[in-house]
């Protein structure tokens, strides 16, 4: 009888001892968990499927407008040595000015001493086409200055399309000279804000209105600074850019 009780107690003790799975089983479980986890592509597709149709329509309109303006812009000039030289100078000046931040936002974006102005004046002088390409090049530099990369679409919205919008200052020639430059500058800044807002909504998990307010917090004062500076330097700079 005592032997029987001892045997039963021993079996209970053995049952209570936790069983450590073999390394092979642990590796197999890890592999199964990894296989069950959604891939980057699946997460991206899921994110896209959750995006409202209005956002896609807005994005499509922005891309179509950029392409149309680039193709049919009558102010587009041939990329000669002068255009390339001034484009490089405008990009360099904008980049240098962007390094001096008067105020930096916690999630990206900053108020600068008119960093958009050189590219805006270049676009106003040489047209929408060259302005769009110069803005794209500047957007790449902005990314290397300390940008964020989640995927190709976020990169396009946050950097390529956002800064290509500065080329819309090339519409200045279609507007009255008295206020056309300032109206085109406001339009360019607005399109940049819309592109950044879409990026914030689609990829940074921010609602549309909070994203728009966030981008306006630094773009509105930045644009005002550009306009104030343009009052004093736009005419002489434009004369130099347009000189043959």
Overview of this protein structure:
The chain has 244 residues and is mainly alpha-helical. The chain has one domain (51-242): Arp2/3 complex 21 kDa subunit ARPC3. The protein has helices at residues 2-16, 23-36, 40-50, 53-72, 81-98, 117-126, 128-144, 152-164, 180-203, 208-242; strands spanning 103-104, 110-111. Strands 1-2 form a two-stranded antiparallel sheet. A hairpin with a 5-residue loop joins strand 1 (103-104) and strand 2. Helix 8 packs antiparallel against helix 9. The mean pLDDT is 77.
Keywords:
Arp2/3 complex 21 kDa subunit ARPC3, 244 residues, mainly alpha, 2 strands, two-stranded antiparallel ribbon
Continuous helix count: 10
DSSP E strands, number:
2
Number of domains: 1
The CATH architecture assignment turns out to be: Orthogonal Bundle
How do the helices and strands line up, and which of them pair or pack?
Layout: H1 2-16, H2 23-36, H3 40-50, H4 53-72, H5 81-98, E1 103-104, E2 110-111, H6 117-126, H7 128-144, H8 152-164, H9 180-203, H10 208-242
Antiparallel strand pairs: 1-2
Helix pairs in contact: 4-7, 5-6, 5-7, 6-7, 6-10, 7-8, 8-9, 9-10
In short:
This protein is mainly alpha-helical. It is built from ten helices and two strands; from the N terminus they run H-H-H-H-H-E-E-H-H-H-H-H.
């Amino acid at each position: 009888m005592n032997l029987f009780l001892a045997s039963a107690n021993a079996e209970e003790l053995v049952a209570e001892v936790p069983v450590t799975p073999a390394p092979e089983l642990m590796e197999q479980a890890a592999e199964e968990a990894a296989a069950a986890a959604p891939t980057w592509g699946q997460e991206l597709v899921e994110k896209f499927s959750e995006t409202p149709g209005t956002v896609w329509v807005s994005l499509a309109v922005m891309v179509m407008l950029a392409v149309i303006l680039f193709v049919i812009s009558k102010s587009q000039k041939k990329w000669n040595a002068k255009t390339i030289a001034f484009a490089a100078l405008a990009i360099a000046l904008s980049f240098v000015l962007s390094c001096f931040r008067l105020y930096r936002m916690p999630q990206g974006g900053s108020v600068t001493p008119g960093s958009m102005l050189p590219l805006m004046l270049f676009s106003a002088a040489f047209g929408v086409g060259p302005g769009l390409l110069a803005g794209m090049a500047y957007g790449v530099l902005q990314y290397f200055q300390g940008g964020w990369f989640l995927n190709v679409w976020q990169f396009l919205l946050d950097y390529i399309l956002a800064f290509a919008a500065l080329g819309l200052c090339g519409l200045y020639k279609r507007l009255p000279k008295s206020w056309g430059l300032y109206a085109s500058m406001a339009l360019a800044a607005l399109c940049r804000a819309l592109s950044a807002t879409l990026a914030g909504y689609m990829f940074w998990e921010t609602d549309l209105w909070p994203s728009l307010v966030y981008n306006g917090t630094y773009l509105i004062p930045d644009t005002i600074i550009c306009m104030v500076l343009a009052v004093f330097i736009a005419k002489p700079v434009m004369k130099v850019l347009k000189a043959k």
